[in-house]
Amino acid sequence: MSVQEPAVHESDDPAAVTGAEIAVQNPATGEIIAHVPDLDAAVITAMATVGRAAQPGWNALGFEGRGRILLRMQKWLTDNAELVIRTVMSETGKTYEDAQLADWSYGLNAFGFWARNAPDYLADERVRSAQVMLKGKRLVLRYKPLGLIGVIGPWNYPLTNSFGDAIPALAAGNAVILKPSEVTPLTSQVLLEGLRECGMPEGVFQVATGRGPAGAALVDVVDMIMFTGSTETGKRVMARAAQTLTPVSLELGGKDPLIVMADADLDRAASHAVFYSMFNGGQTCISVERVYVEEPVYDEFVAKVMANMKAVRNEISTGPGTSEVGSMTFASQVDVVERHVQDAKAKGAQVLVGGERGHEGQGGHWHQPTVLVDVDHTMQCMTEETFGPLLPIMKVADTEEAIRLANDSPYGLAASVFSRDLARGEAVARRIEAGAVCVNDALVNYLALELPMGGAKASGMGTRHGAGGIRKYCQQQSLLISRVHMKHEVHMFPYRRSVTKALGRAFKLMNGRRRPVP
Ligand code: NDP
Fold first, then answer.
1. Does 385 sit in the ligand 1 pocket, CB within 6 Å?
2. Which residue's alpha carbon is at the smallest distance from atom 15 of ligand 1?
3. For 12-20, which contacts have Cβ atoms below 8 Å and span 24 or more sequence positions?
4. pLDDT tens for residues 440-472?
5. Angle formed at CA 131 by CA 127 and CA 135, multiple of 5 degrees
6. How far is the C-alpha of 212 from the C-alpha of 236, rounded, in Å?
7. Any catalytic annotation for residue 433?
8. pLDDT tens digits for 310-343?
9. How far apart are CA 198 and CA 107, in angstroms?
10. The pTM is what?
């Protein structure tokens, strides 16, 4: 396969091809670069049968056997860096650096991390009980793979957001069917080939290309569904999963605030606001979506933001160092950004830079990196997820107003607070209603695979990363093994008055009748 021009990807499983196809576009140019099968529900059901048949053998390999294949894949990603980065770029329109930093390098880290840490996270846990009736019995909590996991991925990070969830599911001993977004199915297919080369047994990891209905069908046939995408589709997935009582984990939208307090290091705050609002074209669920700046430092902060914006090129990235912000990945996302800018302008906002669709007449899906000021919460850009290269900056009277406005959102994924006073900064962070808050930083908490990451409010449920990020793919099975015991326990039939009374006294004694209530 050419690294520069990813080839047409076709499934090599004849049973998987229904005839219908999806044309995959390079969103930076508008060029069609590949076709993939648009699978229907019958094929998804057949894939589930394949996955279920392959799972016991995969689980039987144990952590060491599975980890060996995952570590081989880490090496494969190193050896095939250009192929992976160029494939991600070709189907997302993002820059070389965005693909390298947030997709490829995340995958590299994640294959190694879960291979090495799964045994500890999922080790049997010995549980001790204070219950006297259970003396002589061994209590164990074990994490048993659920079986077949469905991962539904979005288009903004075709490697990170799909494989980030598939890898721990595999490490735990599950089979996985990944349904990538119809917009970005190629990266998943390239990594599927990589996993095969690394010795992944057939059927353990499958890629189901298709549109929304393929995702809906997947929900019906798996033991657990991990979904990343919009809040609206997340609700649909959860409602569908309720029909089969299938557990779900949802990573949904965000409207992440960044608060600049009056004592902040303004250079650092400004560079972070610009970078993390524009990085990946702003198409990151935990990107900086809105900024609140305390009045005394507002003008200086805005000037520093504008100085940072001067370095931002919005071009087709052809390789390292050629563009800061690429195209948008999803055509209709350009309309969302445009709508938010127009709405803000109509309500009195000022456009300091950008403000228009980009590359008009040249193909592809572009919106200029844009900075808005004089914004407020009557405007969509401050209350709805924009998911594009837009940085709206609002002046606030003080920290209290900043906190109130930061929390004035249905979302609660991530947030940032900038202050030189670390204790004050942390105190503010603790008052933000979000799953993750950085002080004097933004977004990089995502790199700590040891640290749970999940949304509050309408931003989702469940977490990825950390112990919870792999245990969610397991059934917690409790084991009780009776070692020292009588043939007949005292509480059993026949009931006798004397024994019942004695037990009553014993229960009172055991549960601290004599201890004073605090
Ligand atoms: P969706 O939430 O609709 O899509 C996410 C994934 O779900 C895709 O693989 C999609 O398939 C699939 N899907 C669609 N419908 C169903 C269904 N009924 N059952 C199961 N799976 C389904 O996101 P969009 O692509 O439409 O983006 C819309 C908005 O979502 C964006 O504007 C952005 O605000 C937000 N978003 C958030 C992301 C995040 O990281 N939290 C990532 C991407 C988007 P297909 O693509 O084939 O339709």
1. yes
2. 212
3. 15/43, 15/46, 16/43, 16/46, 16/47, 18/42, 18/43
4. 999 999 999 999 999 999 999 999 999 999 999
5. 75
6. 11
7. no
8. 999 999 999 999 999 999 999 999 999 999 999 9
9. 15
10. 0.94
